[in-house]
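Re: the 53-residue chain
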Amino acid sequence: MVDFCRGKIARFKIPRYIFFVEEFPMTASGKIQKYKLSELSLELCKKKGIDII
């Protein structure tokens, strides 16, 4: 994934970690709940032993 991103986006925007999910947390109107997605990513990092500053 990093190789794909190189040369396409700025170096500081390349993600360090990538997690695949089955489905996104959605609102009743069909929008993605970004804050819940953020909470999910922090939870997954914690399970993997990744410290987020």
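The helical segments are 2-5, 34-48.
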